[in-house]
Amino acid sequence: MSKNIGSKDCRNCGLVDTVVIIGAQMAWEQYYAWEGEAAKHFRGMQIAQAECQYCQTRYMAWVWPSANMVWERPTFKPEWSMDDPPEKRFYDLSYRSTFNDEPGPSDIRRKQPPNPVKLLNIMAEIKTLLESAGI
Ligand SMILES: [Zn+2]
After folding, report:
1. Centre of ligand 1 from the C-alpha of residue 64, in Å
2. Which of 60, 46, 51 is nearest to 19 (CA)?
3. Of 14-18, 71-75, 84-88, which range is least confident?
4. Dist. CA 19 → ligand 1 center (Å)
5. How far is it, in rounded angstroms, from Cα 123 to Cα 54?
6. Biggest distance spanned by C-alpha atoms of the chain
7. pLDDT computed for residue 76 by the predictor
8. What pLDDT, on the 0 to 100 scale, is given for residue 114?
């Protein structure tokens, strides 16, 4: 289990570029009342509620790392720019209720069948791998 999903795209429906920020930016501790080591790591991190526009899966967007996270990885730069629209200014996601990469019951609001475009892309990748292996 990881705290972050490692993507800006929706894990539930598999669509690309459908997750957007829907709430105000806030400090991590304004939303999560956790104590202990995790809290030390994330305190001061800027987050915002986000949601998939297609399947309404609930996420927490990672907007800016905490000071502790920056100290641990001084070269880290969040991958968004001020040229991006405000709702796309985030660099990673967690499921909102769990703040990790496993959704809680309230995060998945609409189960989706596998996305046909994603399935076609996966099939094309498999075909390319098989061809490159001479199979
Ligand atoms: Zn989705």
Report:
1. 23
2. 51
3. 71-75
4. 7
5. 23
6. 55
7. 82
8. 62
97 to 71, 104, 123: CA distances (angstroms): 27, 6, 33
Ranges assigned E (strand) in the chain: 19-21, 26-27, 46-52, 58-64, 92-95
On whether the pTM is more than 0.85, the answer is: no
Q: What is the mean pLDDT of residues 60-75?
A: 89
CA distance 46 to 30: 10
Residues with CB under 5 A from ligand 1 (ion): 10, 12-13, 52, 54-55, 57
Q: How far is CA 127 from CA 16, 46, 114, 118, 119, in A?
A: 22, 41, 19, 14, 12
What DSSP character marks residue 17? S
Rounded distance from Cα 51 to ligand 1 centre (Å): 8
User: Is a pLDDT exceeding 90 seen at residue 119?
Assistant: no
Beta-carbon neighbour count of residue 40 at 10 Å? 11
* C-alpha 113 to ligand 1 mean position (Å): 11
